[in-house]
């Protein structure tokens, strides 16, 4: 197996895909607008991400796990994602996704888009319905940064051979430990902190920046 030349790690919601999965799930509970407002505040960095996620997940209590199929049917990959993944692979790179969203959705979306490795939160369920709790440790800003660092080490890559792409405040630590941090579809604080800002909502715009 040929050694990887570089690693690109993307956020999932509003980066890899155009949706915020927790908002789609909240629609199933009739709480979509409320959760959307809370998500926006978390992405702007106005509230603690882990506390906010637990609060937003709590409104999902009682939602049937059958909702996953309906949510998957609404997922929209971000324009340019297929082109970016192909370009990374053609250049000998690896694509990872680390998400404050959920494995229950990402486990279907990521392989369909050619993603090589991914990490996300898990939703606790019992008797075919969500309990309103997150199962296990929450993937927050620190966990995102740690995932990028761990994956790079596993691949034998130095930090400078990594690129992080994100939109929200919980992506800032990941972007700071990467060789290149790109703000995509990003909140103001993320645009300020990023090495570069991708203004077009097209991930193919990242291709010229690949090593």
Secondary structure elements and pairings:
Elements: E1 6-10, H1 21-28, H2 32-43, H3 49-58, H4 67-74, H5 81-90, E2 93-102, H6 103-112, E3 117-121, E4 123-126, E5 129-134, H7 141-154, E6 162-166, H8 172-177, E7 180-184, H9 188-193, E8 196-198
Parallel strand pairs: 1-2, 1-6, 2-3, 6-7, 7-8
Antiparallel strand pairs: 4-5
Helix pairs in contact: 1-2, 1-4, 2-3
CATH class: Alpha Beta
CATH-defined architecture: 3-Layer(aba) Sandwich
Helical percentage:
25-40%
Strand order of the largest sheet: 3-2-1-6-7-8
Query: Under CATH, the topology is which?
Result: Rossmann fold
Look at the structure and give the mean pLDDT.
Answer: 95
How widely separated are the two ends?
20 Å
Beta-strand residue percentage: 15-25%
Q: How many separate helices? A: 9
Cα radius of gyration in angstroms: 16 Å
Number of strands: 8
Count of discrete domains? 1
């Amino acid at each position: 197996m040929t050694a990887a030349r570089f690693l690109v790690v993307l956020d999932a919601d509003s980066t890899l895909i155009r949706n915020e999965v927790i908002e789609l799930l909240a629609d199933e509970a009739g709480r979509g607008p409320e959760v959307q407002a809370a998500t926006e505040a978390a992405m702007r960095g106005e509230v603690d991400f882990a506390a906010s996620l637990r609060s937003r997940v709590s409104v999902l209590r009682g939602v049937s796990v059958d909702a996953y199929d309906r949510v998957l049917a609404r997922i929209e990959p971000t324009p340019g994602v297929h082109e970016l993944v192909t370009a990374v692979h053609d250049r000998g790179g690896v694509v990872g996704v680390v998400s404050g969203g959920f494995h229950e959705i990402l486990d279907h979306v990521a392989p369909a888009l050619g993603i090589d490795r991914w990490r996300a939160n898990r939703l606790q369920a019992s008797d075919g319905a969500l309990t309103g709790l997150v199962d296990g440790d929450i993937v927050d800003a620190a966990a995102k940064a740690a995932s990028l660092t761990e994956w790079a080490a596993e691949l034998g890559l130095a930090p400078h051979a990594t690129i992080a792409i994100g939109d929200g405040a919980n992506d800032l630590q990941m972007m700071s430990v990467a060789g290149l941090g790109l703000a995509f579809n990003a909140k103001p604080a993320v645009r300020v902190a990023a090495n570069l800002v991708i203004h077009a909502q097209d991930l193919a715009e990242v291709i010229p920046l690949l090593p």
